[in-house]
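Why does residue order matter? Because the sequence determines the fold. Keep that principle in mind as you read this record.
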Amino acid sequence: MPEFSIVVPIYNVEGYLKKCLDSILNQTFVDYEIILVNDGSTDQSLSIIKEYMSKYPDIKLINQENKGLSEARNSGLKEARGNYVLFVDSDDFIDKDLLLNLNDSIINNPDLVRFQLRVVSDKTIDINEEAFDSLNGHDAFKKIIKYRFVENAWAYLYSRKYLIDNGFLFKPNMYHEDYGLIPLAIIKASKVNSISYIGYNYVQRSNSIMSDSNYMKTRKKAFDVLSQYLDIVDKDSDPYYRSFLANSVILKLKDLNKEDYKKYLSEIKKHNVFDNILSDTLVRKIKKMLLKISPKLYLKVVM
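Structure:
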């Protein structure tokens, strides 16, 4: 049984895939397996995968029709045999010592390990956030919500047993599918570590799912977030968890046109989303009052 399983969902990333795979294959820690999930690519991604498999026969390949990122990650997780699972998006890449540092971080058998990341776009930005050790999920969540990219699946290492025992899977046919699982996985954890090592390179590309300018996708993102919120908000009573989820829903209002804004706001009010916003300090009380009076003004204040 390998220590780590690295799951790489792949869909039409021919221009990025080699750099991603090279970064995984060049790890200084060698006790790991690679699981590639080709999610119905129509470009040269599959040809690149086969080229690498001819050189590295231990690479595992799952070929499936296009089902989306959630199903691709779920397929990889089901195939994984490592003690810990790492999700790497196929247009990103990792530093050569990431697994080595993660191996040092799992001595105390955490359910999750958070590591640091680098944003790669026109310029490179290192994200340095507070490290911590052996916190329960609730205490860890209070620290992590101050981080950037809180709910991104690729920012964490996961105990495979923890994921399986809790039945944690990504919800199919969703944008922002990470939002519907990762906050819950953090809050329910018995032990979470966060290390200071910057090991993940998040490549922001103009035609990725999360930066697509098509309005219908933007609209679906908003309503998908609300749908997932309804699935997970009542699974823990922690006020910081519930406030984070609620605020993520509310912030989607800014992306919607006038007609959809009204529909979305109506759904938010129907499900009492505003009630979960924290009001434990004077500033938060004022913001919450402002939210109920004028959501548009609230968005200007918090953005």
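The chain has two domains: 4-210, 212-302.
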